[in-house]
Amino acid sequence: MINKIVQKLADAMAGIKDGSTVLLGGFGAVGQPNQLLDALTEQGAKHLTVVANNAGTGRKGLAGLMAAGRVDKIICSFPRSAGSVVFEELQAAGKLELELVAQGTLAERIRAGGAGIPAFFTATAYGTYIGEGKEVREYDGRKYILERAIKADVALVEAWQADRWGNLRYRTSGRNFNPVMATAADLTIVQTQHIVELGELGPDDIHTPSIYVDRVIHIPYGDPPMAQPMD
Q1: Res 57: pLDDT
Q2: Residue 74's pLDDT is what?
Q3: 10-residue block means of pLDDT along the chain (231 residues)?
Q4: Separation in Å, CA 56 to CA 13, 51, 59, 148, 186
Q5: Backbone angles phi, psi at 132, to 5 degrees
Q6: Structure confidence at residue 28 (pLDDT)
Q7: Residue 84 CB coordination number (10 Å)
Q8: What b-and-e string marks burial along 190-205, b requiring 16 or more CB atoms within 10 Å of the CB?
C-alpha cells in the first residue's frame, strides 16, 4: 500500500545532506512551508544553496535557517524586502552569496529542470550585469542569453490538500512557485494543511501528481513548528 505520509518532522527531513540545493516554494510568506524550514534548521544540514522567490523576512522560516548559518548561497528574485534583516546582515558581513535572477527566468529555469531541459535562451537580462558572461545568440534580430536549468536535491513545498499517495492541491495564491518546484528535485517534501482520502481529489483538482512527491506531513494551519502525530 502506497502511503507517503510521515508522522514526524524529523522523519520528513531525514537524509538531507550538507551541500544540498533546496528549492523553497512560496511567494513571500504565502505558500511557504515554514514548519519544514524550521525542521531543516533543527536537522542541521549546512552549506546549503536555497532557491526561492525572496530571501526571507524577520528571523523565522528561511530567515531563521540563514541566521543559523546553514545557507551559503541563495538564488532568488527579491532578496531585499520589508523585514529582510537577516539577509542584509549576512550580505554586509560577506557570509552569504547571492545569485539574482529575474522572477520569470527563475520560474522557467526550475520548470526546465523538472522537464529535463538543460538550458534555454531568453531576452530577459540581456545587456545587464545579470547577463554578463553568458552565451548570447541572435534570433530574428533580437539578442538572447543562455540560462541553465535548475535541478535540486530537495524541494520543500506547502499544499492545501494531499492524499496518502502524495497527490496535491494548492489553494488560490498559495499555488505560486510550489507546483513547479515539486517537479525539479530528487526529494520532494510537502507540508499540507489537510489530508484527504484517496479519490476525494478529482482529476482536475490535482495540481501536482503523486509521482513527484516523496514525503507528506500534515501541518494544520496555525500549528506550532513541531507538528503533532496524527491519530
Answers
A1: 86
A2: 97
A3: 95 97 92 95 97 91 95 95 89 95 97 98 96 96 98 98 97 94 98 96 96 97 48 33
A4: 20, 11, 8, 24, 24
A5: -65, 135
A6: 81
A7: 20
A8: bbbbbbbeeeebeeee
Report pLDDT for 230: 33
Cα angle, residue 37 at apex, residues 104 and 76 outer, rounded to 5°: 25
Please report the domains of the chain, with CATH numbers, ordered by start residue: 9-115+149-218 (3.40.1080.10)
What single-letter DSSP state applies at residue 229?
A: P
Of the candidates 91, 73, 107, 78, the one whose C-alpha atom is nearest the C-alpha of residue 175 is: 107
Q: How far is CA 35 from CA 103, 171, 211, in A?
A: 24, 18, 23
Between CA 3 and CA 219 the distance in angstroms is: 17
